Amino acid sequence: MVINNIDIQDSFDKILEFEQDFQRKNYRVWERYKIPGYPHNTKGVLSESGFGNDDHIPLTKNLVLVTGAASNSGKLSTCLGQIYNDHQIGIESGYAKYETFPIWNLPLKHPVNLAYEAATADINDYNMIDPYHKKAYNKDSVNYNRDVEAFEVIMGIVEKTISKENFMSTYKSPTDMGINDAGFCITDDEIVTIASLEEIKRRKLWYQQMIDRNE
Fold first, then answer.
1. Which helix or strand (DSSP H or E) is residue 194 part of?
2. pLDDT of 191
3. With respect to CATH, is domain 35-212 assigned 1.20.1570.10?
């Protein structure tokens, strides 16, 4: 288990208690720390005081699946930090992602993609046309703000850390690093649209309930 975004000045005692609780249950636990300016301060992120300050996770498998408790839980930064720290000890590694939403080859305002925005409004996610993909291929592709913002770090890793033979060196955009064929699986757009609109209504009600409870 990986604990992300630790601020040792703010909540270290609580984190330590949480960590020890899971260790007593025979979980192995690693720590990753809050990095000032992440992801925009690429120089700081790709340094000993950035990713280099995190625990290196010793792995024995060639393929590792990383999952998290929820959106915005640090899955991407965990993978990128691991690649950085692998490189420091002579291990070549890379990262790709399974990401269902937003669906890159549907229109930006398709109800499915709007439903994704509704589902993640509480963490300020929003969809956008991938500017890197547009520049590289002159094609529109839908992505979301956090992946686009983090792509600076990925480009830094590609340029300074991994070898040219690494599959990550082919990434020209956040869309390139995703594995997502969901858009090709839609056989009835009307049914999908109705379901998406129902999801938006459900999320709106949920957010209103949170507001009413002052959460």
1. helix 189-212
2. 98
3. yes
